[in-house]
């Protein structure tokens, strides 16, 4: 497949225009719109790039499913197979629709920069990776009506923020079949939750009340992984993978502010009257849960890959200070794969494209009134290779996840969503030395 350098530039410019069109609106928006994000530290995003997300999150037995190097953050042992310097950047878009008791809300759309990662080979047996990815998202708003004396009031709950993950990892081969790796990460961010008490009637002389809980979180975490690869024949191999962590302890600093305010006849908030309560800098420890993930994949070189993962997290051990805010152990199952019809096709571009698919199920750590909140999703995506330029290889990766969390039964909220991730992958020979055997 031969295209001019002008065409390459046009395609790349179109991609980056789409990328920034997706990212720029996010500066004025929160990145989640689910009431279930209020539990724990928010919605867990998972350390996954679009390549893995399109396969349902399949990661443990994934190394290099095709001609291109990919950064698989979810299992650092996979870094050991990187042959070229790899750069990956992307954005995500989230569309949600909430419903309760047969009543549906409006579609809510949020978008943000999703990741920026690098992978650099150290030698033929090892590589490092580093970057910045989201760890959790917090975003919700809902209200309940009530009465105080004869006055109608609204209890309004909202939250925003999230935690980011800056990481550095190393993976290396030990013999022909085993690879090991680890990630060291710094988690940081701010979580804000508000509880407001407002009079529903047009009472401009009455003060409403709002309490904001702000939690600044920061601390180190680490995870480790291994992969075992065994050849079934010349072109097909079996790969087993495992990752885990021993939990980590994060620092948090909580500020609480309660203010009184009034609204005009149009419902617009007037200037805040005063702060009736302020508590600054209450320090606390957050103990994260033990997590295990294991899986396998069967892979035909430059042809196809199929596999499955299972995961378990002991969220019952999660602590904010000395208490667990009602979180339960979670587990998940993923099945997914990828097909590339002909990785060396010359005349038919669509045979070069990676076609990815997956399904996933999660029993989340949220339980409301003895009702487990479960999540189901189907995923799919594509890897679109661009014409190579000298020693550089380019690919655009697109993934989509269509899922549901929760149910309308037992007066709960059903959260339906479409999550779209767009990424750009570059393979090149930056920073690399020539090795002579």
TrEMBL record:
Cleaved signal peptide residues: 1-28
Record organism: Daejeonella rubra
Gene3D superfamilies per UniProt: Outer membrane protein transport protein (OMPP1/FadL/TodX) (2.40.160.60)
Superkingdom of the source species: Bacteria
Record key words, sorted: Signal
Name used for this protein in its record: Long-chain fatty acid transport protein
